[in-house]
Amino acid sequence: MYLADYHVHSAVSPDCSVAMTDMAAAAFAAGMQEVAFTDHLGMGRWDCAPLPPDHDWGPAREALARARADWNGRLTLRLGVELGEITRAPALAERFLASAPDLDFVIASVHGLPAYQWRDLALIQEKDEAECRREIQLYLEQVRQTALWGRFSVLGHLTLPLRYMNERRGFHATFDGFEEQMEEIFRILIRQGRGIEVNTNRGHQPLPGEKWLRMYRDLGGETVTLGSDAHGAAQVGCAIREGQALLRRCGFTRFCTFEKRRPVWQNL
Ligand SMILES: [Zn+2]
User: Is the pTM of this model over 0.85?
Assistant: First the structure.
């Protein structure tokens, strides 16, 4: 089976300190044949200061050139990006994309909500399950608007709030009860020819989980990538094989890699 990790961070991201070539080494050691580096580019800095109007793609391109030189012939390496909080400044996101014509792959992600001053979801301290439900509702509205914007390859880690609510804060939150909103998001994506990812979440619960992958497939969705969301070498390639098995269980017969933002189909 073809093994590709399509959500990997490197020292180009502010929250990862491992050089891209070292992340590539980890991918090779984990048996991957292809990697897309998807370093963060959010529409607002984490200290909430405004972003400059232009993004310098130099560090990502230089790190990729070095990794490609080091791993030439052993690993296919793609230039991707994880665009965050697009609804905060969609024109800025378009400007950033226009200045990087050599991108292979674009993940669109929601990590913050306007009602919480765009603070990272990881930092929200929900009081109770009721607040979790309200937060999920607000999150899904941001995801819906992001899906409508549509200038990306896949929607990243749909159901992300569960990572923090359940893994870090001990809730037992689910997206049950939000079927209508999830279906609408999937329909928008399918209509526009956009996909989703199975974020293998470094081995924790996949985002999104089996129920939602089945819904996406039943609605006719097929464009799907698999990514670990690795921020450290030990996480690269984590649970990609299990993610492929999950997709097969949900009725998928193929998944995607991307080249110059066009899908390349891989059998499952
Ligand atoms: Zn993300």
Answer: yes
